[in-house]
């Protein structure tokens, strides 16, 4: 009996191991170059190295294997591209074949998750969430948020003044993170006053972007295990309420429930509802009770009858506010940090920018219309995002239906990842000065020189980042207020060049600066 069981165990082990080896050699069998990594897990170990961010690893692989190559992460197969024509093909021309995001299986099925957000949703559910969320980021909505953003900018400047007394250096990355968390807390989380440097959410949110060992191990498990076992792990994690993302969801749910209770009390007291105060109000106005899902498969998307209305459930509201919190916290702070470093390293650019700010924003306050006149500042921000693209793993898609891009057949289920760092510094696209910081290259307007698919700091096509204009608004407001008062200068603590780290995003380890008062 023991021998019989052992015999079948060996057969089962060999069968499973052979299957994993077959998946591991997927790209080799298809004649596509790329790093092999290790049997079963593929290149997953590279994603565990916080000191060498994944996007920079992909950039190094492009140097070795060319503009198109493939790698595996457990059972996940990824094709990497950095040719602008292929990028345009995937994100725009063949959008119907690549409308899904690249997601680790441990993240779950976006069609079945009650709190699916606009970032992870796909198909008809994504279209519905996008339609409902878009008015939140219109010019009219942003104009109403201008005073809130400015209040946060003036508040962080108070902290800068306190900490730079005597010419001390400060880590601008931390200050920018406090600023962006305060802004998104005010407009997305129901926060009524500033909590800078005293925000209980800060350590929880920042931990998510620091590449915790727990998160990395979960991603490894999700990529290696078959789907039915991944679901078991997910349920265990959920029941134990583990994970930073779960804590943030809980905080958001509490904020939404508090606002619902307040609205109910106001209604009983006969208080007329006023203008929406923040994202929670906007989304509650589109809230509906949970309804039973009835799914039909139309060949392209899975369509649920509950997704065809323009209303949101409480869980969906929590999902939207959570993803806006995370996206608004990290990427905008990083963009501000990189801009600060580049301005300090290029004083002639900083002087030109200060002259524009002094000219266009002469009053103590800065209006929404004045922000739109800061054209050179826009050039600085665009050039910063070209050299230091953010959230580049979001520039990925899942192939939903077998097709061809270029000379390669891409099977359904394959992930396609853009090497954004290589794409946006390619001398063949940007010229011999591609690695140089030259904001002037943007002064004639994007359409005059940008090849389609060559510049994608906020993505491309229908799924381009919905919060782009809000991010630009925050950056303009804060940089304008700072540069009217100070000049960024490097010091003994400034790391030159910046030391880049990270897991989810690529960030500088620190951005220490002197802020010298202008005379």
UniProtKB/TrEMBL annotation:
CDD domains: CYP3A-like. The chain crosses the membrane at residues 6-22. Pfam families: p450. It comes from the Eukaryota. Heme binds at residue 465. GO terms for molecular function: heme binding; iron ion binding; monooxygenase activity; oxidoreductase activity, acting on paired donors, with incorporation or reduction of molecular oxygen. Its cofactor is heme. Keywords: Heme, Iron, Membrane, Metal-binding, Monooxygenase, Oxidoreductase, Transmembrane, Transmembrane helix. SUPFAM superfamilies: Cytochrome P450. InterPro entries: Cyt_P450 (IPR001128), Cyt_P450_CS (IPR017972), Cyt_P450_E_grp-I (IPR002401), Cyt_P450_sf (IPR036396), Insect_CytP450_Detox (IPR050476). Belongs to the cytochrome P450 family. This is Cytochrome P450. It comes from Caenorhabditis nigoni. The gene is Cnig_chr_II.g4012.
């Amino acid at each position: 009996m023991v021998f019989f069981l052992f015999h079948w165990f060996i057969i089962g082990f060999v069968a499973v191991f052979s299957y994993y080896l077959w998946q591991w050699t997927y790209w080799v069998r298809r004649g596509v170059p790329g790093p092999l990594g290790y049997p079963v897990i593929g290149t997953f170990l590279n994603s565990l190295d916080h000191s060498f961010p994944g996007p920079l690893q992909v950039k190094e692989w492009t140097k070795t294997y060319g503009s198109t190559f493939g790698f595996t992460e457990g059972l996940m197969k990824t094709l990497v591209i950095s040719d602008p024509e292929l990028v345009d093909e995937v994100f725009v021309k063949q959008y119907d074949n690549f409308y899904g995001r690249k997601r680790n299986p441990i993240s779950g099925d976006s069609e079945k998750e009650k709190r699916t957000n606009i970032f992870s949703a796909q198909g008809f559910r994504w279209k519905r969430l996008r339609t409902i969320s878009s008015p939140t980021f219109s010019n009219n909505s942003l104009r109403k948020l201008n005073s809130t953003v400015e209040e946060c900018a003036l508040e962080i400047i108070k902290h800068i003044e306190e900490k730079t007394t005597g010419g001390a250096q400060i880590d601008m990355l931390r200050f920018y993170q406090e600023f962006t968390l305060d802004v998104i807390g005010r407009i997305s989380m129901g926060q009524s006053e500033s909590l800078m440097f005293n925000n209980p959410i800060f350590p929880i949110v920042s931990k998510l972007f620091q590449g915790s060992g727990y998160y990395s191990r979960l991603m490894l498990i999700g990529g290696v295990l078959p789907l039915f076992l991944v679901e078991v792990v997910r349920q265990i994690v959920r029941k134990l309420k583990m994970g930073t993302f779960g804590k943030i969801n809980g905080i958001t749910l509490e904020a939404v429930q508090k606002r619902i209770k307040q609205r109910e009390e106001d209604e009983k007291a006969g208080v007329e509802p006023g203008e929406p105060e923040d994202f929670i109000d906007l989304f509650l106005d589109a809230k509906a009770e949970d309804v039973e899902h009835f799914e039909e498969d139309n060949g392209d998307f899975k369509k649920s009858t509950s997704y065809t209305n323009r209303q949101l459930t409480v869980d969906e509201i929590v999902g939207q506010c959570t993803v806006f919190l995370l996206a608004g916290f990290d990427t905008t702070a990083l963009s501000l940090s990189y801009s600060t470093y580049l301005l300090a390293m290029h004083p002639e650019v900083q002087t030109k920018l200060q002259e524009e700010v002094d000219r266009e924003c002469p009053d103590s306050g800065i209006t929404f219309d004045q922000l739109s006149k800061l054209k050179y500042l826009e050039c600085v921000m665009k050039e910063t995002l070209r050299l230091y693209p953010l959230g580049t793993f979001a520039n990925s898609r899942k192939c939903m239906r077998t097709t061809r891009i270029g000379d390669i057949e891409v099977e359904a289920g394959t992930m396609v990842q853009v090497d954004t760092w290589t794409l946006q510094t390619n001398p063949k696209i940007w010229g011999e000065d591609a690695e140089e910081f030259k904001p002037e290259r943007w002064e004639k307007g994007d359409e005059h020189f940008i090849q389609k698919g060559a510049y994608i700091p906020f993505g491309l096509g229908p799924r381009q980042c919905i919060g782009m204009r809000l991010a630009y608004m925050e950056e303009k407001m804060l940089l304008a207020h700072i540069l009217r008062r100070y000049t960024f200068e490097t010091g003994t603590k400034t790391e030159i060049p910046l030391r880049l780290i990270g897991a989810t995003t690529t960030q500088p380890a620190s951005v220490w600066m002197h802020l010298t008062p202008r005379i």
